[in-house]
Amino acid sequence: MGWFIKFRKYNKLSKELIYCKSELEYRLSLIEEIHPEFEEYQKEFCQKRGIDIDEHKTKRNQRMQPLNDPAALVGNLSKETLMKEKGKTREERLESRHFSHLYKKIAQRIHPDKLVSAKDPIEVKEKEELFKIASTAFKEHDWASLIEVANTLNLKPQLGTLPLLCKEISKSIESLREKILEEEKRYGYLYAMCETEEEKEALMKRLLHQFFGIFI
User: Fold this and answer.
1) Measuring CA to CA, how many Å separate 124 from each of 96, 105, 130, 135, 148?
2) Tens digit of pLDDT for each residue in 101-123?
3) What's this model's pTM, rounded to 2 decimal places?
4) pLDDT digits (tens, 9 = 90+) for 175-206
């Protein structure tokens, strides 16, 4: 595969990664924004039917507490789980190594030490903010944000790193898609997608049945 095709593949995957990150952020912000309205609708729905939803929530939380208690998990990790966590750490180190070349290019361009001779205070401030974003992204394995900073600075990864970068980007895309699907299953998101009162009522009946065993 020639260098031109490799770069085109990298650009295509990078755009897809950034898009997936944007889609996940949209769903998360939508769920957060709709939450107060969703809670109010749930409360009114239950009051009309004589259901004490707060009491049901309290009882459910009491049942779930032993399962969610971190102390209950201490010393109970299996060898398989420990090996999986160690493997995950190794994978994370490899990911960082694959993207370190791109991060170094960003640092060479906009690290605060490189800006001491810059005369435009606005430009310095903008580049300092970009470097903060890049540093946080590299630390947290947020490759979409790291690539966005690189694109803003018109920086391209080294040709030799492209195959491994594309592989890691593909894995990140798959992970983001899984998270998007998870968020789309949340009742807050499903409520936001409801267009009619009938759809909202059907959704609430499903919620009450699933979480509290209440049939309406």
Assistant:
1) 27, 17, 10, 16, 18
2) 999 999 999 999 988 888 888 98
3) 0.80
4) 999 999 999 999 999 999 999 999 999 999 99
